[in-house]
UniProtKB/TrEMBL annotation:
The lineage of its organism: Archaea, Methanobacteriati, Methanobacteriota, Stenosarchaea group, Halobacteria. It comes from the Archaea. PANTHER family: ABM DOMAIN-CONTAINING PROTEIN, BLL5343 PROTEIN. This is Heme-degrading monooxygenase HmoA. Coiled coil: none annotated. It comes from Haloarcula pellucida.
Amino acid sequence: MIQMYLVTFRLIPGAYDTEFHELNDAIQAAAEDTEGYLGKQTWHAPDSEAVLVVYYWESLDALESFGVDADHKRAKQRWTEWYDAYEVTITEVIETYGCGFGDDASPLA
């Protein structure tokens, strides 16, 4: 049986500035440096400004380890400066299967 957790970050973007991009890059680097980080995929809704980013994690421990990152905490406190809305959903994956997505498949598919 696979073990994987998805963190789905749904957002409506606001105005991004240089500080946002620098902080976003630092957060992504911290995620990639966290043991148990498996990857991410991003989708843009065709009928709205909504963006969906799905982060893949090997365990809740890995996710919690990333959650204490200082840049990540700072960004969470300042979300109103860069997003009009956001929602985070954490999901445990029971099963994943499929065919045809190649390199675009989920990390454990």
